[in-house]
Design the sequence.
């Protein structure tokens, strides 16, 4: 149930991803998409959600980044691609995930995890290195700029109800 302090509104999300591996920096990827900005006062968590597209190669996947008061960020994907990664600055996590190609072991070393968010939008920044089989594979810097695009949404997210 939403309280007066909860926020749920449409947002414009500008995403910039820079990656490098083996000393080579790749061309940054910049995308703009529409999504939702929400705040849950009970847990003091900001959520930024959006649907992936063909441009990211993850059509059919919904991405949500959750910014917690202590600065850590959780990235959760649902749909065609299912995954959850927690980013805590200075933390290295070793994960094992089942993929269509079998069990895969990887590590995530977080260099940066921070953000500032208000009802008027804000930013989330992540910097991390990803490794497979105890070898560095790629480093990424991700920046999301979130701008509200409308008045707050009603509790049902403004989606039409299916009247049968």
Sequence:
């Amino acid at each position: 149930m939403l309280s007066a302090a909860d926020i749920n509104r449409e947002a414009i999300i500008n995403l910039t991803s820079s990656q490098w591996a083996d000393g080579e920096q790749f061309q940054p990827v910049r995308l703009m998409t529409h999504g939702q900005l929400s705040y849950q006062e009970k847990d003091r968590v900001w959520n930024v959600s959006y649907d992936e597209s063909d441009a990211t190669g993850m059509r059919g996947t919904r991405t949500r980044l959750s910014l917690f008061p202590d600065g850590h960020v959780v990235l959760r994907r649902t749909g065609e691609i299912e995954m959850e990664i927690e980013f805590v600055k200075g933390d290295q996590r070793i994960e094992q995930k089942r993929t269509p190609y079998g069990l895969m072991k990887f590590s995530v070393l977080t260099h940066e995890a921070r953000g500032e968010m208000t009802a008027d939008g804000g930013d989330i920044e992540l910097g991390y290195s990803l490794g497979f089989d105890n070898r560095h594979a790629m480093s990424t810097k991700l920046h999301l700029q979130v701008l509200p695009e409308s008045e707050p949404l009603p509790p049902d997210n403004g989606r039409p109800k299916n009247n049968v």
Observations:
- The radius of gyration is 17 Å.
